[in-house]
Design brief:
Shape of chain A: globular
Shape of chain C: globular
Number of helices of chain C: 12
Largest interface: A-C, 37 and 36 residues
Chains: A mainly alpha, B alpha/beta, C mainly alpha
Strand order of the largest sheet of chain A: 1-2
Low-confidence stretches of chain A: 267-273
Radius of gyration of chain A: 19 Å
Low-confidence stretches of chain C: none
Structural class of chain C: mainly alpha
Number of strands of chain A: 2
Order of helices and strands of chain C: HHHHHHHHHHHH
Structural class of chain A: mainly alpha
Oligomer: heterotrimer
Mean pLDDT of chain A: 85
Number of domains of chain A: 1
């Protein structure tokens, strides 16, 4: 355990320092986006991988996080780092609210509904009533933040380090949750929800909370993406964002399953046929 | 007279589990052969093995031709009709559609029309319920429908899996009475799987007793039904 | 009042297209219990094929028929090659495969035919026509074409031996084998038919919404809504649902939420159906024994 922790810290330090020193700003920007996508996919992994609820609509949370940050920064001048906790809370609430009706939908129907959500999101973002905040079709442009305390690094370098720090924090949090009682309960629901319920696990509560947590992660990723890209617009958040998250998660999950049998995805039983 | 169906050293199972451990049996041409045994003995598996619905090793010969390893649809083409346990009715389709499916592989329309009439002769209730959805029929009627559907294939070999299952005794008697008539008039060889041993022994010429995947008793049906010790130990009456 | 009539008629016209795609979805769902998320992309690809044939000089209706046939074959191939191993896979795996198929077809279409929006010709005389200009010539024509296709499919399934075999294979593959139906081929045929119907839908809608690789995303959503509304295991219900969604979408767009939020209306319909009556208006309620 300590050995894993030590390796983790070493790797994280290396990932933080080496690219920052060696790569150009543009390449660092690309690396930052990789980190952002990793966090987003982690969110999906929490919901689909560990809890078995299939979501084809995580792009919606990504969009909500991105717009929350953009609106706070653009309309209200909130500093970039302060928008993250707000975004986290907002997305968690939205995730919880979506998780409620999701309780009634199993496997395929949930996939269908989240798919529909993802397709509908760009239209919602463009809507007239919200245009005042969202900037409508043109979206919002936000300034790139400067490194704090006058550190001698470029904004891109700082954003990379910042994202990596946020990412590490979130990964640690997820690691702890998944390894503990809650994680086991989540996986029990995924593998055999009926048995889990019979063992006393409050399925409804756990599933909605998992949805909230998952939305939080992908939402924070969305916030980071808005800060890094400096721009949000409705058409960036179409169905393909959700699809790429899903495909990305599937690929990662399959690589992990192949690498280590402890990571193997258990058979997910269809609840609805 | 050579047997219509002969199985030699038949093994069969589901996945890792072996259910049949090398059994030998035969179905006489034109007669009724009974396959008896308790729950889990492997009776249903035997019928499925003949139809190619489970993995098998060993030999199954139908009318001189090997059918083990063939696909179910091909075995059906060679004249094997199977009435599965639970009837296998197409519950969403009408009685008419169920019957038409029975004759699916046949090309002789006149022959099919004649056979339809004969089926209504055996099972008049099917004519009454012709356009009804099959799922709304009673258990006994569904069993009749299943048998009629199988006979419409024009089979050489009829496999019946527990026709008495889940049916009220009066209905069972009615169905078995019809089966006596079918056996006289149709010239089809029948392999009958039954838990209700007395009914089966009444209609069969030859009987096998299956116990946990092995044949423990084989002989003429009337001898077995007269043998008290066999009846008591194995057949429960 | 005139406005309502216009919206309703227009909704029926577009409803015919939704009904076609919904029917394709339900056909595959009935047979495999999987939702073909790639149905829209397949229809888009078919439409591009049609455009290519037309640009190569073929008269419209010849290109139309050729496209339908090619789509049928493509659908069968996809089933035989890709879907065969997926038959008993868990939901997550099959969703993954369908999404993958969606991506592959979408990207291939974009790569082969580029992402520029193209116009697609209509064989029907243009301009507002009957009913004092409530419907354009194309809308009326599209309605009749989809109606003919739907009726033809209905007759096929109800009154032909092959149609009966396909229904049987969808409902009860085990018993179907026992009467000699080749279930594997029935599945392939079902996919082929679904692809063909989708192609018709695509060719009918392209003149209205213009052709680009992402043309069908929204329409697929309306088709989902229609299929769910009518009952995802009920072909007739799906067709009626498709028409209903067309009308609802138009009316809601005109009078309730504005045309920009029409997709949201579809989403609301989907959520409402799944939460209130998952089996849809005409589907069977499935109870699962614990």
């Amino acid at each position: 355990m300590a050995k894993t922790a030590l390796w983790g810290i070493v790797l994280w330090l290396a990932a933080t320092i080496v690219p920052t020193l060696m790569l150009s700003d543009y390449h660092l920007f690309q690396c930052t986006m990789v980190v952002v996508y990793a966090i987003a996919i982690l969110g999906l992994a929490i919901l689909t991988g560990f809890n078995g609820q299939i979501s084809l609509g995580h792009g919606a949370f990504y969009a909500i996080g991105a717009y929350t940050t953009a609106i706070l920064m653009y309309q209200y001048g909130v500093p970039y780092w302060a928008t993250l906790p707000v975004s986290a809370v907002v997305c968690a609430i939205v995730g919880f609210l979506i998780g409620l009706p999701a309780l009634r939908l199993g496997g395929l129907y949930l996939a269908l509904t989240t798919f529909a959500l993802a397709v509908a999101v760009p239209q919602l973002l463009k809507h007239n009533a919200l245009e005042h905040w969202t900037g409508g079709v043109q979206g919002l442009v936000i300034d790139k933040p400067d490194p704090p305390f006058g550190l001698a690094m470029s904004p891109d370098e700082w954003l990379y380090v910042f994202s990596l720090a946020v990412g590490a924090l979130l990964f640690l949090l997820a690691w702890n949750i998944v390894r503990g009682r809650i994680g086991r309960a989540m996986m029990a629901i995924r593998d055999h929800s009926l048995a889990a319920e019979a063992m006393g696990i409050d399925i409804a509560l756990l599933k909605t909370r998992t949805f909230a947590l998952s939305a939080l992660y992908t939402g924070v990723a969305g916030s980071l993406s808005a800060i890094v890209v400096q721009f949000v617009a409705p058409d960036s958040f179409g169905i393909f964002v959700s699809i790429y998250f899903f495909v990305g998660w599937s690929w990662v999950a399959s690589r992990l399953s192949a690498a280590d049998h402890r990571w193997r995805l258990h058979r997910i039983r269809p609840e609805y046929r | 007279m050579p047997a219509l169906l002969e199985a030699t050293s038949l093994h069969a199972g589901y996945g890792e589990t072996r259910v049949l451990h090398g059994i030998d049996f035969a179905v006489e041409q034109g007669g009724v052969t009974a396959l008896l045994g308790a729950n889990g003995a492997g009776k249903t598996t035997t019928l499925r093995a003949i139809c190619g619905m489970v993995r098998t090793s060993g030999q199954i010969v139908l009318g001189g031709e090997r059918i083990d390893g063939k696909a179910t649809e091909d075995i059906v083409q060679r004249g094997v009709a199977h009435v599965p346990d639970g009837r296998g009715t197409f519950v969403e389709l009408t009685v008419e559609e169920n019957l038409r499916l029975g004759a699916y592989i046949r090309k002789d329309r006149a022959g099919v029309a004649r056979d339809f009439e004969r089926m209504f002769g055996y099972f008049p209730r099917l004519r009454e319920r012709y356009r009804q959805q099959a799922g709304t029929l009673s258990g006994g009627e569904q069993q009749m429908l299943a048998i009629a559907r199988a006979l419409l294939l024009g089979p050489r070999l009829l496999l019946l899996d527990e026709p008495s299952f889940g049916l009220a005794p009066l209905i069972v008697q009615e169905i078995f009475a019809i089966m006596h008539r079918i056996r006289e008039d149709e010239g089809v060889s029948i392999l009958l799987v039954e838990q209700n041993a007395s009914l089966a022994l009444e209609i069969a010429e030859h009987a096998y007793l299956l116990e946990t995947g092995r044949i423990v008793i084989s002989g003429p049906a009337d001898e077995i039904s007269r043998d008290e010790s066999i009846r008591r130990s194995y057949l429960g009456y | 009042m005139e406005g309502v009539l216009h919206q309703v008629l227009s909704g029926i016209a577009s409803g015919g297209i939704y009904a076609s795609v919904a029917l394709a979805l339900v056909m595959i769902y009935q047979a495999t219990h999987h939702v073909n998320f790639a149905q829209g992309e397949m229809a888009t690809l078919s439409t591009y094929i049609a455009l290519t044939l037309i640009k190569a000089g073929l008269p419209y209706w010849i290109a139309f028929v050729a496209t339908v046939i090619v789509s049928f074959i493509l659908g069968m191939l996809i089933e035989r090659i890709l879907m065969r191993p997926m038959m008993d896979a868990p939901v997550l795996a099959s969703v993954g495969v369908f999404i993958g198929l969606l991506l592959i077809i979408n990207s291939s279409t974009g790569w082969m035919f580029d992402y520029m929006i193209k116009t697609f010709p209509t064989p029907f005389p243009g301009g507002p026509l009957l009913f004092s200009g409530y419907l354009s010539g194309h809308e009326l024509g599209a309605f009749f074409v989809t109606l003919i296709v739907l009726i033809a499919v209905y007759l096929f399934f109800r009154h032909t031996k092959l149609g009966l075999a396909m229904r049987a294979a969808a409902f009860n593959p085990v018993s179907s084998r026992l009467v000699g139906v080749r279930v594997g081929w029935m599945l392939a045929l079902g996919w082929g038919l679904a692809a063909a119907i989708g192609a018709v839908g695509g060719m009918m809608v392209a003149p209205i919404v213009y052709l680009d690789p992402n043309m069908m995303a929204g329409i697929l959503l309306y088709a989902f809504a229609g299929a769910l509304l009518g009952g995802i295991d009920n072909p007739l219900g799906a067709v009626l649902g498709g028409f209903a969604v067309g009308i609802i979408e138009n009316l809601a767009g005109a009078y309730l939420v504005g045309t920009e939020l029409k997709l949201t209306v579809a989403l609301i319909i989907i959520v409402a159906v799944l939460v209130v009556k998952p089996s849809g208006l005409f589907g069977r309620t499935v109870l699962s024994r614990v």
